Amino acid sequence: MHSIHLYTSSPSHLPNVTAPLAAERAIEITSSLIDLARIENGVPPDQLRPTICFDEWNVWDPIRAEGSKGAEENYTLSDALAVAVYLNVFVRKSRDVGMACIAQSVNVISPLMTTKDGIIKQTTWWPLYLFSRFMRGWTVGAHVSCGTYEGETSPRWVKSVKDMPWLDVSATLGDDGYANTAVVNIHEDKDIESKVEGVAGEVAVFTITAQNVMATNMKGKQEVGVTESTWDGKGTYVFRKHSLTLLRWKAE
């Protein structure tokens, strides 16, 4: 395996949620370099192609959560949506990525925080929960047609190498016969209505959102979690502003 690791963050919402696209570009570049090395060294086509280990990834602001002081993050909804975009990237690039490890798991830049009263599930816990539960099986190509964000990015070079659609999407077909589509509406202020092709029958809907992108679960109450609903699969679906929506239905 070839190793990559990357942490991203920004105090501004849109640069924060588009930053994980830097990881996608890093995977694309690394994959090309693997191919180039195989070509230049005459590696036989039937020899197993190395995959990529994204050995560390997460949202981390080292100023907000200084390492020497424990690196304990207070994650927001914006950070949760950034994590969801990371996870979409790993699904989209599953051909190349053999392993992807979030850093860390508990307390240090983590989705779980321990206190004297128990465990707090931070905002970033919830996209990890949905993806680990449902986004399994085979990756399905998702073709998205919508407007794009064209503002500032962090890192600055992201805007020059990646399109940044308002709807960031990945899809899978599970071994259980269910189709799963994860859609992050990164827009802070605008719901986006879209037709979802391929839907059959009733759709289970799982949504992560809150009143605003700065909502957190670290102020004594859970402001960010998962809500469940259903959709009849007819017509168009409205993806709520600053949200992750996972649609799940039995594929025909």
Structural features, described:
The protein has helices spanning 13-18, 21-40, 77-92, 125-134, 158-161; strands at residues 2-8, 52-59, 97-102, 112-115, 118-121, 138-140, 167-173, 178-185, 192-195, 203-208, 227-231, 236-239, 243-250. The chain contains five helices and 13 strands. It is 22% helix and 29% strand. Strands 6-7-8-13-10-11 form a six-stranded antiparallel beta sheet, covered by helices on one side. The chain is an alpha+beta fold and 252 residues long. It has a single domain (2-250), classed as Sandwich (Immunoglobulin-like), CATH 2.60.40. The chain starts with a strand and ends with a strand. Helix 3 runs parallel beside helix 4 (125-134). The radius of gyration is 18 Å and the shape is globular. Pathway: Glycan metabolism; L-arabinan degradation. One of its GO terms (biological process) is arabinan catabolic process. GO terms for molecular function: alpha-L-arabinofuranosidase activity. InterPro entries: Alpha-L-AF_C, GH, Glyco_hydro_b.
